[in-house]
Amino acid sequence: MKSSQHDPDYFDRLITERDAADFLGYTMRALQNWRLRGGGPAFVKVSGRSIRYRRRDLRAWVESKLSAHTSQGGLRHE
């Protein structure tokens, strides 16, 4: 299995919560809190105990959080 960004499915493949946390540079606990409270990246609930993420959704979430200064919310790039 390829794990390189050169793999055409790299950004669409489902990854584990741990891999998603590593990708974002946050803890698994942070992802769990965002899922509970809202405001985090989109996720796939495969079953009651199985959560997965797509790198594409993680990147989109990060992009939605970009700001030019502290008095600004996330910028929308459209």
Layout of strands and helices, then pairs:
Elements: E1 14-16, H1 17-24, H2 28-37, E2 44-47, E3 50-54, H3 55-64
Which bin fits the share of residues in helices?
25-40%
Tell me the β content. Answer: 15-25%
Low-confidence stretches: none
Question: What is the radius of gyration?
Answer: 14 Å
- How much is the average pLDDT? 88
CATH topology name: Arc Repressor Mutant, subunit A
State the major sheet. Answer: 3 strands, antiparallel
Enumerate how many helices there are, as a single number: 3
Domain count: the total is 1
Query: What order do the helices and strands follow?
Result: EHHEEH
- In whole angstroms, the N-to-C terminal distance is 34 Å
Description:
With 78 residues, this protein is an alpha+beta fold. It has a single domain, classed as Arc Repressor Mutant, subunit A (Orthogonal Bundle). It has three helices and three strands, in the order E-H-H-E-E-H. Strands 1-3-2 form a three-stranded antiparallel sheet. Strand 2 (44-47) and strand 3 (50-54) form a beta hairpin. The chain is globular, with a radius of gyration of 14 Å. The mean pLDDT is 88.
